[in-house]
Design a protein that fits this description.
Strand content: under 5%
Radius of gyration: 24 Å
Largest sheet: none
Mean pLDDT: 75
Helix content: over 70%
Distance between the termini: 56 Å
Number of strands: 0
Number of domains: 2
Shape: globular
Length: about 260
């Protein structure tokens, strides 16, 4: 019988699996540990856990975009001292964790309770994100030094709110909420309570990893911006604000397209 690439692969795979116990018995403890780790990685339960983790993290990280939002965070908190900014970064990360967790696990139920559809959420939230990006894009064009002093004095007297606009919509905007709700409402069916627990643990780990990424990027935003310099920081802030504006328009248009398609049907 001719040997095809697929039969070659199956023969190699069966040979490895059948030879594993003998290799573990005759090899060093390091190789035995490697075989043990390999067996755990190929376990179906570990694969479900890893799949849920990477699905949540990879789906949310590009939209949350903590690296691109770090210069905007620093610009909005430029009047604060380093200690105050670092504490604010931890509160924003905690708020982001709670908001994303709520969106993943109960977001679809909350929308159904209030009778709000996902396209409506995308339109309203997209307009808010576009407004934030537009404001940041034109910030400073009509600002004089006296107005800056008044703004700094007023903002120093009143501590900034860690939820609006730093958590929402700057960090966790309607796009992130929509993706989190979609991930939570479209989770695959599981056969038992153990599988559901593993998938929930993987999703929880992915959300925690997002929150840790937000904290690290905001916590060291001053070092990131300091390495860019004033001119580079201004360019990054303007580009990030423009991208935020475009993301808001895209989110709103996505929801509007769904509603227009439903109206035509």
């Amino acid at each position: 019988m001719p040997i095809t690439p697929s039969s070659n692969f199956l023969w190699l795979r069966s040979g490895i699996i059948q030879g594993a116990p003998r290799a573990m018995a005759t090899s060093s403890p390091e190789r035995a540990l490697a075989w043990n780790v390999l067996g755990r990685l190929t376990d179906p339960h570990m694969q479900s856990l890893a799949h849920a983790f990477f699905l949540v993290y990879a789906g949310l990280f590009p939209i949350v975009n903590p690296i691109g939002s770090a210069p905007l965070f620093l610009r909005l908190t430029r009047h604060l001292a380093n200690d105050g900014r670092h504490a604010l970064a931890s509160r924003v990360a905690l708020n982001s964790l709670i908001l994303i967790l709520a969106s993943v696990f109960v977001g679809s139920q909350v929308l159904a309770f209030f009778g709000i559809t996902l396209p409506i959420l995308q339109i309203g939230g997209g307009l808010v994100v576009a407004y934030l990006g537009w404001t940041l894009l034109h910030a400073g064009e009509e600002t004089t030094s006296e107005r800056d002093d008044k703004v700094v004095e007023r903002q120093s007297a009143v501590p900034p709110d860690s939820f609006y606009p730093l958590t929402m919509p700057l960090t966790v905007g309607p796009g992130s909420i929509a993706v989190a709700i979609t991930l939570g409402s479209r989770r695959p069916s599981v056969s038992g309570l153990a599988d559901f627990g593993l998938m929930s643990a993987g999703a929880l780990a992915g959300v925690v990893a997002i929150a840790v990424s937000v904290f690290l990027c905001y916590r060291f935003a001053d070092r990131l911006v300091g390495s860019l310099g004033p001119s580079g920081t201004n360019v990054v802030v303007r580009l990030s604000a423009f991208i935020t504006f475009c993301i808001g328009i895209e989110i709103a248009w996505t929801g509007a397209s769904v509603l227009l398609g439903m109206a035509k049907a």
